[in-house]
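Hi support team,

I'm filing this because I wasn't sure whether my run with nicotinamide-adenine-dinucleotide finished correctly. The job status page said complete, but I'd like someone to confirm that the output block is well-formed before I use it downstream. Pasting the exact inputs I used:
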Amino acid sequence: MNNGILITGGAGFIGSHLVDILLKRTKEPIYIFDNFSTGNQRNIQHAFSSSQVQIIQGNVCDRNSIEPLFEKCHTVYHLAAAVGVKLIIEKPVATIETNVSGTETVLQLAKKYKTKVLLASTSEVYGKNTKIPFHEESDLVMGPTIRNRWSYACSKAIDEFLALAYHHEFGLPIVIVRFFNTVGPRQTGHYGMVLPRFIRQAMNEEPLTIYGDGTQTRCFGYVKEAVTAIYELMQKPSALGEIFNIGSQEQVSINQLAKLVKEVTQSSSNVEYIPYEKVYGPHFEDMKDRYPDTSKLFRFLGWRFSIKLDEIIQESFEFEKTHNSSFMGKTRPQRGGRRRRTESYAEEPDERERSIPHN
Ligand SMILES: NC(=O)c1ccc[n+]([C@@H]2O[C@H](COP(=O)([O-])OP(=O)(O)OC[C@H]3O[C@@H](n4cnc5c(N)ncnc54)[C@H](O)[C@@H]3O)[C@@H](O)[C@H]2O)c1
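And here is everything the job wrote out:
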């Protein structure tokens, strides 16, 4: 019987939040498939007790280990990928192979078992395009192949081409989402993600390390809104064959982000500027600004991302304090004004992912 939902990369940051919303919205079996390379058992620990959830360790590129799950599932959320600029620079072969061959395997099996597919792509595919905001039909402007940072964007772009080709040639039901910077509790700074790294540095009173001059701008979207968006898109037949930007439109420079983190965490850390080359090697290229046009998402769902960045930072900070054993509790007395949220997130997932204003 194919009454289940498969999440590849379900032990990762976004995948684990998707598990939470599925547990609330459906009674169907949920299969988490992950090789735990960047994902973590702790992210899904709270789901262990649910008889609805099964966790299977395996490599998404290995057809034999994942095929039995397609027999049981009507939908696959394909999130498994090599993620994070640091990882991509350090392990380019694994990045390209996981992202291309993993998606190829998923699409082949989805065709065989008539499974509906959500493909997780990225705002990185817009590459060096300088015309913001990016809308779904904007040009993708990649750097040269000798700069391996572009291998992530190119591998995701190939995934998109392949998914669209399966849709047009074989009628495979697919939805493609391009996540912009997605943040919140459980995200780790180990693979180059800026916000969890800043929070960790602020908590330890270490300098907040800004790569480049910090004037580059990004939009940081709340993970629970992101998973709500992808879940709701998958319920809409009109979304099939479409691509969607998924993210917030609250634009901040990395300098402003560092300032906000210092404020929320009440840290006296300094800010330190590090040239890109020192972190990622010579000739590293970054994008100056990344800003999504989310009007298509609004047209389909009737709501936009609305949780403010300072609230997300606050929640991520609280999560780190509760879950990070290396942090020695260097919190200061709370200054007035800011709301403290102190629940143990993992045991008690937040209800906010659906209290989104419809504006
Ligand atoms: N977080 C963001 O800001 C962001 C932005 C753009 C796109 N995305 C995309 O969203 C998806 C989820 O990203 P995330 O932020 O949760 O990252 P993550 O690293 O936390 O999650 C990826 C998960 O995939 C698993 N995985 C990796 N290779 C695998 C393999 N070969 N077989 C099985 N599992 C494997 C990892 O262990 C991890 O649990 C990815 O496809 C990523 O490209 C994320």
